[in-house]
Structures are given as C-alpha cells and as structure tokens.
C-alpha cells in the first residue's frame, strides 16, 4: 500500500505509516477519536549513530520538531514531517547553526545526513550574501556645522557665503556650538 501511494503521490504527501485497524475509535458524537489511535511504527533508516557533530545536532532537531527519535538516514517525511514542520525545522537549523537553510533544501535532502552535507555550502552562500549587502550599504553621512546636514548647509552657504552664519538649521534640543560666530 505504501509503495502504491509513493508511486502516485509526491514524496512529501505519501503517508509516513499505514496501520491496519478493525474499527476506527469514535467519540460519543461519532467523530474520529484521534487520541485513541495506536502509535504507528515508522520505518527507520540504516545508520543508528551520527557520523559528525552536525548530524548529531540535526538528529536532535528532527526529534524535537517531529516528536520521534530520528537517525541520520531517516527521512523527515517518513517520520511524519510535512511542509509546516519543515519550515519549523529550517528555523531551528538557523538558531542552532546560524545558517539560513531554505525549506526547499529539506524537501530535496530530507535526512539529517543530507542536510549536514549541505550546511557548509549554505554557510558560504550566506557569507557571500552578507558581504554583497555590506558593499551596497552607503557610508554614514557626516554632519555639518551645528548638526546641520551637509546639503542644508551648502544651501545656506550659497546665500550668505562660506563664512556666513547658519541660522535655524540645528536640531531641536541640541545646542549649537560655534564660537567663531558668537553662538554658545
């Protein structure tokens, strides 16, 4: 049955487990009583121990997000994960590793081992983006005389000459200090 579902559905939509029951548990109102359903036995991966610290941490994050024990070769979706939990996992990876892993990476490499292999490349891509953004951020503007922005001061100087006083351009609450022009 799982094989048939896997052939006809995307991997993220295939059921993680199928449990045969004689009857479904019902509430007195006739609705499905989910709390009374038996816990499914989920198919596990091949490896039982993580190979690296990153795999170990990712297995812990899988366990935290999914609520089931995860091993390095266990698929996120086979353990009961879905798109909303994948987003939560991506956020926990960012908190733990400082790497912004896109949710699509969880879909394309859904095991802790595959995600651990992608972390260094993603960290390098994040660093490149940060460097590019820092190059685009303009340098801070320098303040002119008495807290006046250079563009305002230049306008005032055209009217009164470069040595003329600049009046009324200071910031409120900040006293102007210009002893050359008799200001306090």
From TrEMBL:
<dbReference type="InterPro" id="IPR020806">
    <property type="entry name" value="PKS_PP-bd"/>
</dbReference>
<feature type="region of interest" description="Disordered">
    <location>
        <begin position="140"/>
        <end position="184"/>
    </location>
</feature>
<dbReference type="Pfam" id="PF00550">
    <property type="entry name" value="PP-binding"/>
</dbReference>
<protein>
    <recommendedName>
        <fullName>Carrier domain-containing protein</fullName>
    </recommendedName>
</protein>
<dbReference type="InterPro" id="IPR029058">
    <property type="entry name" value="AB_hydrolase_fold"/>
</dbReference>
<dbReference type="InterPro" id="IPR009081">
    <property type="entry name" value="PP-bd_ACP"/>
</dbReference>
<keyword id="KW-0597">Phosphoprotein</keyword>
<keyword id="KW-0596">Phosphopantetheine</keyword>
<feature type="domain" description="Carrier">
    <location>
        <begin position="49"/>
        <end position="123"/>
    </location>
</feature>
<dbReference type="InterPro" id="IPR036736">
    <property type="entry name" value="ACP-like_sf"/>
</dbReference>
<dbReference type="InterPro" id="IPR045851">
    <property type="entry name" value="AMP-bd_C_sf"/>
</dbReference>
């Amino acid at each position: 049955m799982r094989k048939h579902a896997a052939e006809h559905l995307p991997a993220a939509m295939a059921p993680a487990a199928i449990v045969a029951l004689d009857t479904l548990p019902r509430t007195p109102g006739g609705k499905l009583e989910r709390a009374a359903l038996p816990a499914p036995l989920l198919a596990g991966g091949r490896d039982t121990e993580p190979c690296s610290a990153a795999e170990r941490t990712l297995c812990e994050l899988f366990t935290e997000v999914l609520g089931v024990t995860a091993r390095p070769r266990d698929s996120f979706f086979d353990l009961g994960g879905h798109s909303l939990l994948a987003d939560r996992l991506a956020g926990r990876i960012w908190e733990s590793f400082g790497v912004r892993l896109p949710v699509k990476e969880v879909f394309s490499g859904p095991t802790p081992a595959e995600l651990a292999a992608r972390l260094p490349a993603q960290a390098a891509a994040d660093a490149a983006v940060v460097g590019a953004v820092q190059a685009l951020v303009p340098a801070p503007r320098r303040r002119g005389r008495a807290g006046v922005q250079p563009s305002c001061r230049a306008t005032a100087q055209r009217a009164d000459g470069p040595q003329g006083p600049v009046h009324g351009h200071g910031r409120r609450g900040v006293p102007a200090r210009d002893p050359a022009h008799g200001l306090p």
